[in-house]
């Protein structure tokens, strides 16, 4: 999983990053809410961990801005024992869960494993971007007309649609869509991008996948 951590206490941040990296999570760490908002705009994350009390921009304000942009990433808030009102405000502002400081690293990693298991079992049945609708279960793509997709085409397009406007490197897409295929290489990403572009054109959708072979790609409407 790819995780964004916003925690202003540098020593605690280093400990948390080391713990998450020890179980092969990819972690970006920042020390204030403003930087968290900026990275969330640019990158796709599986989990965002936000401390509430941070300089420049606090975690609640950062969370509100992230949700206002339409980002539905799972957000875990870090709170102090006395911050009961902040916990309630965080949940009301769109947080999915919270951990109360001090917490054990085992508990944090257990929460993240639980989230990972749920992700493996659940994906939205239908995703919409502009005039484009993807029925994941039926592997059907609909705009002015419809067309069937293959399994990997569906996985790739679903990922791009859920993260509309965000750029992904070829290696990011390979790791996400072909994570269980040891024989897959970066050339396969370009082949499937080309397939999807042809199918988007065939159903006359205004949505496009932009990017060049070997570089980064994003879906725009």
From TrEMBL:
For this UniProt record, give its keywords in alphabetical order, as a comma-separated list.
DNA-binding, Phosphoprotein, Transcription, Transcription regulation, Two-component regulatory system
Q: Which Pfam families match?
A: Response_reg, Trans_reg_C
**Matching PROSITE patterns:** OMPR_PHOB, RESPONSE_REGULATORY
Q: Which residues bind DNA?
A: 124-221
Task: Give the record's GO CC terms.
Answer: cytosol; protein-DNA complex
Give the top-rank taxon of the lineage listed in the UniProt record for this protein: Bacteria
Q: Which GO terms describe its biological process?
A: regulation of DNA-templated transcription
Locate the Response regulatory domain: which residues?
2-116
**MF GO annotations:** phosphorelay response regulator activity; transcription cis-regulatory region binding
Q: What is this protein called?
A: DNA-binding response regulator
Q: What organism does the UniProt record list as the source? A: Lactobacillus taiwanensis
